Amino acid sequence: MNAKRKNTESNEESADSMTFESMGLDQRLLQAISRLQFSKPTPVQEKAIPLALEGKDILARAKTGSGKTAAYSIPVIESLIRMKESKPDEKAVRALILVPTRELAEQCLRLINNLLPFTGKLIRAVNIANNVAESIQRSLLAELPEIVVSTPARVLSNLNNSNISVKGITHIVIDEADLIMSYGYEDDLASIKKQLPKTLQVFLMSATLTADVNTLKSMLCRNPAILTLHEEENADSEGGKIDQFMVKCSEFDKFLLAYVIFKLDLIKGKTIAFVNDIDRCYRLKLFLEQFGIRSCVLNSDLPVNSRLHVVDQFNKNIYSLLIATDDADQIAAEEIDIESTTSKKSKRRKLKESEYGASRGIDFQNVSCVLNFDLPTTARAYTHRIGRTGRAGNSGMALSFVVPSDQWGKHKASSLETAKRDEKILARIQNNQQKQNETEIKPYVFDMKQVDAFKYRTEDAFRAVTKTAIREARMKELKQEMLASEKLKKYFQDNPEELEQLRHDRELHSVRVQSHLKHIPDYLLPEAGRNSLVKNLGFVGMKKTSENRIRKARSLHRGRSKPKRVDPLKSFKAKKITK
Predict the structure, then answer these.
(1) pLDDT tens track for 26-45
(2) Residue from 361, 389, 384 nearest 268 by CA
(3) Which CATH superfamily is domain 17-234 in?
(4) Would you give the DSSP letter of residue 57?
């Protein structure tokens, strides 16, 4: 017993002292990791990297923001460095990284390139997921890069065109494995699998372990090491906690509470507000716009370049409020929950064509709050939505609006079909939270007596957001973003001054402008609210407290008379010139 106790103690000590240096990584890779300021491995990296370096297949389930991308990128790059040193003359595609969306492919390539700056031309990575001409893809693959990042459909297309050979593949990674299957890539993966070598190392990474992931496991893996990291294992001792709240309110009160929250600055930091369809995106944006609350939208209608640019600028703190849809999850929910005569194959094709989901994969940084303006239609979608905050050891908050069944349909203009089942979905989410021992969703109570003072203003603003205004806003935004996308592609690097022209939170002005709504009259504010608002704005230098030095000097000399200069041509007075 004592020996066992000593062994467990030593194992705990070794786990606590685990560093990237102790993993035996190449110095060039360690230098890149240090440059990225990765101080110590996250739990998923700590468990996955040593096992992967031993050559084992990995099936890892960990929440979003826990460092899964680095958990497979680091061992893959380390293995390729060792392979290159032993066989320097052999050139071939060695690692295939499959992701569900173009945004995630771009994000993945960015991290890999950040890990490769000190390896020179030893290892190169390319992304072929972007919608570019086949000739460009052929030229990228002709150089035989060691790492290829792509969606399964694009890889299969290049395989059929003989642009890529997978005979030399030694590693295959499937990131967001459950989402890849729900997007309808199962047939593509089966076709790719037939052409892959029989002996290769497999990484399956996912935030949830579903039946789809088990299907992939049986298709690709050979006795994998299964790593399931729960919330408490992932959470950093100093952060990583997501406080979850929900508010039961009527459909119109969602807009009222959103106005109060953002106008009175009740949420500090950046917020992502999730809605359930694209029209809803623009309804909320146009509603908030009338009060001077700026926001940008993110949905599958926008061009890919614009979506990437929105995410990039949001991460750089240019915007503080992002209104997003997660269309792929909603389509998946319709497939599961709503009876239809449409075939399963056609639904999966629809999912695959969308190739988009803001709640999945995309790396949103330093998000303080996720607001479920519309409650998602599945418990899984809720998990992925709130995973946008509380990332990398930081704490966060998730607030969800829930419409009681007896309140649904009473305000037709603000009504949404998915809200009819809010209470059932909430019960599923709470059961899911209990099973996984995650944070309890607590009720958040607003003092509606104080909030009701703003009701007439929100009703006035809401009436202005008509269906015609929403349609015009969608068309205007799409036109602007298509032009901006072309600029991003061709001119932005050479013309950084165009940044202001490419902002995504510009006002659309599809509704009548009511300038009085942008300001809150004092009589509407309760005493507590007035004080808090003053405190929030107290640090802003609205007026100079000290006198201007130059103005002060001018005022002192203003009364003094100055000696007049005499113009001899006007006065006919001149000094006598003596010879």
Answers:
(1) 999 999 999 988 888 988 89
(2) 389
(3) P-loop containing nucleotide triphosphate hydrolases (3.40.50.300)
(4) -
